[in-house]
Amino acid sequence: MKFFKKLLLVSVLTMIGATSLWANSYRVVTELPSKIFIKSVGSHTSMEAKGNEIKLHTLNTNNRNQQWYAFKSGSDGEYRLRNAGAGKYLNIETIKTGKLIKKNHKILGLNSRYTKVKFLALNDTSFLIKVSGNEVADAQGGAKAYQQGQAVIPYGLNNGAGQKWYIYYEEGGRIKMFHLTNYAREKQSASNGRTNGGDQPVNNGGSSNTLSQSLNNVAIAPYMHRANAGQFRSENSGNILSEYINKQDEVGRLNFIEKVISSACNNSDNSFRTAVYNELNKANITSNGFAARLLKGQLKKNILKYQQKEKYYPAKAALGNLSKKYN
């Protein structure tokens, strides 16, 4: 009996060690903007305060319930997040009733108390949000996580798209996608007036942004609506559009391609649409993850719909070539 007790103790300690060590393999974000928006990589939804819960809703940078103040809470990258609209902190809560959530289930909610969180970098633009020793912020519900109103919960790391987040912030009247390396450079160069060459500034109207400034999920649609073929060819030197797509994780790539096509198809410049679709043919669409494979199948269906509606033959042919890559 003593042997089995010792074996059980060793097993538990081993599990505790494993769950605490996984976080050490990621870079901890130690500098964040003071006010941020937290958007799901797997969808176009953002964390929003709804009552005393945190739900996913379409990103709206004018909605204060989607704005979060980030306060440092220690020297090792810990933050406490206070919702601008609700005035309360993100905190792990236990609820006892609810139609979508089981009894005594933990969620990420709002309270005068707070849970310290850490942002762990998967790359320069997407992050895990560690909320406890072995749990991260997770869009609850698997495939349902892409629906409006889904809850955000603490959950063990599983590398799913619902656990990956983009960060946006406002500066100088514009919304920027948080880029870990470039943000640090921007802070260093602020004193001598240099601007950040890598972070993509966005104005919500998209009236004057270049392609390089529009390479994020907020600003790419306005650019695709208004740009012309000459501008795109000039600004896409070095194939920066396909190169940007290739740097995203597989779910991010597919979501971004969908956004580009759905926006560009409404541009009246035939040559512009053709040039954009040809550029997308250069993007890497390798998809190994389950969620990415599902998105890939859906994206092919959407591309075929756009192809049917396209009246200009060169653009129509470019979409046809693109759809073949998704077999």
Alpha-carbon distance between the two ends: 57 Å
The count of strands amounts to 15
Radius of gyration from CA coordinates: 22 Å
CATH topology of the largest domain: Trefoil (Acidic Fibroblast Growth Factor, subunit A)
List the uncertain runs.
3-21, 191-207
Main CATH class of the largest domain? Mainly Beta
Overview of this structure, please?
With 327 residues, the protein is an alpha+beta fold. The chain folds into two domains: 25-167, Trefoil (Acidic Fibroblast Growth Factor, subunit A) (Trefoil), CATH 2.80.10.50; 208-324. It has nine helices and 15 strands. Strands 1, 2, 5, 6, 9, 10, 13, 14 and 15 form a nine-stranded antiparallel β-sheet that branches. It has a two-stranded antiparallel ribbon with strand order 3-4. A two-stranded antiparallel ribbon has the order 7-8. The chain is globular.
Short structural summary:
By secondary structure, the chain is α+β, with helices and mostly antiparallel strands. 33% of the residues lie in helices and 24% in strands. It has two domains: 25-167, Trefoil (Trefoil (Acidic Fibroblast Growth Factor, subunit A)), CATH 2.80.10; 208-324.
Key attributes of the depicted protein:
327 residues; alpha+beta; Trefoil (Acidic Fibroblast Growth Factor, subunit A); 2 domains; two-stranded antiparallel ribbon; 9 helices; 33% helix; disordered N terminus
